[in-house]
Design a protein that fits this description.
- There is one protein chain.
- The protein contains four helices and 27 strands.
- It is mainly beta.
- The protein folds into three domains: 3-183, Sandwich (Immunoglobulin-like), CATH 2.60.40.10; 198-265, no CATH class; 385-478, Sandwich (Jelly Rolls), CATH 2.60.120.
- Strands 18-19-21-26-27-23-24 form a seven-stranded mixed beta sheet, with no helix packed on it. It has a five-stranded mixed beta sheet with strand order 3-9-8-5-6, with no helix packed on it. It has a four-stranded mixed beta sheet with strand order 2-1-4-7, with no helix packed on it.
- Strand 11 and strand 12 form a beta hairpin.
Length: 480
Amino acid sequence: MASITYLRVDKSKQRSVRITVQGSGDTPSCFRGNAQTYRVAVFDPSGNVLDLSDHSSLNLAYMPSSRTGAAFASKTDAIVNATFTEAQWEAGTHYHAEFVFEEADMNPSLDGALTKSFWMVCFGILTATGEEDTHGGNTFTIEEDGTANTVTPPSAPAVGITSAQAAAQIDASAVRYDAAQPLDAGEKDQARQNLGLPKNKLDATAAPTTGDDSGDGYSVGSVWINVTADTVYQCADATVGAAVWKQLDGGGGGSGDVVGPASSVNNQVALFDGTTGKLLKSSGTTLGDAAAKNTGSTAGTLCAGDDSRLSNSRTPTTHASSHQSGGSDAIKLDDLATPDDNTDLNATTGRHGLLPKLGGGTSNFLRADGTWAAPPGASPVPSAVVTYSTSSPTLSSSDKGKIIHVDTSSNSVTVTLPTGTAGDYFWMVKKFSNNVATMARDSGVALFHQGNDADITMENFKTYFFWNEGSGTYRVFSMN
């Protein structure tokens, strides 16, 4: 009687082993030539019993490791229980389908070896469309026990799927394990995937591109070796159309988390390519010699921003010519600051200079000696009349331009005149009780009347015009 084995099929692309023996978790195996009965349950990716209400049947087959080899045996069974619980499955009372393999079905050649690995696959047929739905696959081992049925193994199954159908249903991770038949590069990749390891490319002749992605079977951690350039890469992102490969051997595009072009121009600045922070590109800008200089205060070094020489007091080099007319930095006179209120810049008889400070008013003019005075021949107009009723009046600068009345009965009048400035003038009218009187000059003041520097005998009610020539010297004119 055939032994009964319960097989768990996990419909999950994340599991490296998808057909296992219930309870032990081992890969399925049997002795050659011994009949086998397999009761199968299919589980979804979450580990729950899959509802096969939309299936009409299940198929279980095993075949050589070759992806194009025909199946040695293939069995189909109608769905026994479409739905049930995991507890019912573990109790052995419920399963999706049962497959009975006869002795002849389990009698393939082991090529003289004690064991040989094959590939077992489970798929279903959808009721609505008749399409096949692959659920899982795994290595299936047949061992030689010395008591096997000697029936010649069939060259091809009498019933089951064709080799093309088998190839279509075999999971891409099918491999063989046979020392007499070494694995080729493709099968080695599939073996790694069976164990949950990423696919590698160990015989490439060029660097990987963004198109070498998950669509080609690569995943994060995949290794790519360019045997032509002796460079090694590892996949950091397998997104379709945007795969990122990092070079690990320090050449070409760099190492670590940054990947750049395979070649570059010496001293050109590198820029980030995109926003990932992991890709570099050339800016096309070459650094000058200054980029390779150290800071310091000696020849061949650069001055840093905090260098004290940039802020200490230093006498500038001679550059007056640059500020002169026609110079590179000519300064116009009207662009300078307002000068002080002094005579430092005034013109004199011995040098050129600027105009003296204006004296105000509208009747004076600038004389050649640099002083302001009334124009010669002009008739000054008095601005006011001031009366002094004393025999010794003292005039001040505020009396200039005015008519001075000296109203006293004294025959001796002494007038103190201000030193004043050149161009000052005033009129004086003597109003005495008697006919004449003498006006004595004050100390330090020169009075020139009719060419004489002497006291003036003033007639009553007669007007005298005083003109300041400067330095306390007055010219006196009788006007009537």
